[in-house]
Fold:
Amino acid sequence: MPPTAEEIVEAVAGETTLCLDECLMRIRHCLGQLSDEQVWWRPYESMNSIGNLILHLNGNVRQWIVAGLGNAADDRNRPQEFLERTMIPKDRMMAQLEGTISEAKVVLSRITADDVLEQRRIQGFDVNGFGVIFDCVPHFKGHTQEIICLTRWQLGDAYGFHWEPQTPEEGATE
Structure:
C-alpha cells in the first residue's frame, strides 16, 4: 500500500527536525571550543562573524518556519543580524537559537499535507510549505558549515572534531 500524503509530510518533517538538530549539535560543538571574543572575530571587516551567523540563522528559521509555516508574527530585522557588533555572549545566542529550533520543531510536528501545499509569501518570495523547508534547511546547513570553517580557521590544529570515522564503512583508514 502506498504511503499517504500525511505519512510523506510526517517523514519530511521528521528528517527536517533531525537535520536541524544535527546542525545545532555541530554549532554547539564549535561554540564550546571558542571564547566569546572568538565567536565575534571576523577574518575581514566585510565578512560575518560566527555571532552574526547565529543571529542570522535564528532570524531565518523564525521567519521561514515559525512564522511562515506556523503563522506566528514575523518581526525579523534581517539587516541587523549582519550589522550587530555588540559582543552578545555565545551562551545567550545559543539559548535563543535552541529556543527557535524548539519552536520550529513544534510547527513541523503539526504540519499537514494541506500546509505543505498552501502558498504563502515569505521575505518577498512566493512559496508553498515544501518550499519553506527546502529553502530553510539547506540554508541552515550551509551556514553551519561556515561556522565550522570559521572555528577551524581560528583554532587550526587545536580544533576538536565532532566526529571522526571509526570503521571502513564510515571512511576510516586502516
Summary: The chain has seven helices and two strands.
